[in-house]
Amino acid sequence: MNLVIQVGRIANDLELKVKNNLESIRFTLAVDMSYKNNDGQKVEKTQWTYCVAYGRLAKNISAFCKKGSKILIEGQINSYRIGQDEPLKDITEVVAKKFQALSNLKEKDESNAQLLDADDLPF
User: How deeply is 30 buried, as exposed, middle or buried, from its count of CB atoms within 10 A (0-12, 13-18, 19+)?
Assistant: First the structure.
C-alpha cells in the first residue's frame, strides 16, 4: 500500500497550469516535526515535501489556498528521474488524491481589516 498523509503549510506561491486540457499544480509542503535528542532536548525540524495535484483537486487547491495555508494532504509517493545528461536528478513527490484546507488565508488576507465601533474612530 502506498499511502501518505501529511499536515503542513504551503511554502510557495501557487500557479495553476493547464497542459493537454489537464490542470495541475505543484507546491512544496513545509511539515514541522520535533523529537528529543540523546540529551533529552527537544529538536524542531522542518521536512520539505514536493507535492503535485491534478484536475479538479488542483483547481480546488488553487481556489482555496495560497502560500502559508495550512493543509492536510493524502496521496501516494511517486519517484522518478529527470534530466537528459548525467547526472540525472532523482525526484520524490506526493501525488495528492485528497486535501483539506485547515486555514483559509485567501479569505483572511482579503478581510484583514479590523472591525471598529463608531466610538473607536479617531474623528
Answer: middle
